[in-house]
Every structure is written in structure tokens, then in C-alpha cells.
Amino acid sequence: MRGHVIIRKIEAKDRNTYIVMSRQFYRSDAVLHDIPDAHFHKTFDVIIGGSPYADAYIFEVEQQVVGYALLSFTYSNEAGGLVLLIEEVYILPEYQKQGLGKEFLAFVEAHYRGDVALIRLEVEKSNKVALQLYKKVGFTKVDYIQLYKKTAKVKPHRE
Q1: What is the model's pTM?
Q2: What is the pLDDT, as a whole number, of residue 36?
Q3: Looking at the DSSP assignment, which residues form a beta bridge with residue 89?
């Protein structure tokens, strides 16, 4: 059984831990495809640089990092305000199914209450455990078809 969880903002000291866990996430069944390692570094730099569009949290149990979450923010006319997208939630396998995900979702709702109009997330169809959790805490399925188009290479991030 796990100890008390601490959810804290990601810090510069977390770079290597975040990158290792992010690689594990993108090589898991929770996502449809892997991404280049350069994306992990760029994302970390954007977050640590204080971007208003991205944020991240680290989960600690007994002073050990056991997971992370990545958030992004956008404005939506449809939602009538700021939208928080839970981009990634990764918990080390040995700490999964112990309530950390549920605790993080409660944290997000409490922390951003009054600041965001809507919280969104995506889940891979076969990730039944996560889907069940999200429905249990009040998320509902939307019937939009999600599309995307890759654009030309983005300029490297500048600090």
C-alpha cells in the first residue's frame, strides 16, 4: 500500500525523471504512437520557462517520484472560457490502481476551479481502467471526431 501522495509543480531538478517517465508513457499501450525524444526536452523547457499554455505536476510518495501529469491551456468560445486539457497522466506501474489518478483529478478540479470553464482529456480506447476512472469522476464522452494535420517543422524553442 502506498503512503501519502504529494502533488507539486514540476521543477528544473525533475528534468531527467520527467524525460524517463515520459518515454515510458509514450512507449506504453496508453498512447497510439511514440514521439521523438526531442519533444520531451522541448516540452520540459517550455514548462520550466513559464509558458501560460503548459504546466506539469510531479507525484511523490514517500519522497520518491512515482508519476507526472502534463496540462495545456487554450481558450474556447464553445466552452465560454479557458479550457484545461489533461495531456498526459503517467504513474509508475507499481503505483497504478492505488488512487493516485483519482487524487490528481480531484486536485486539478480544486486547484483550477473558477479559472477554467472546462477540463478535457483523451484516452486510448483500449485503456479501460482509465476510461472507467474518468467516467466515475464525472467526465462524459463527446461525439466529436478528432482530426489533426502535421504542419511544417516548428522553429526550435528559445529560452
Answers
A1: 0.89
A2: 87
A3: 69
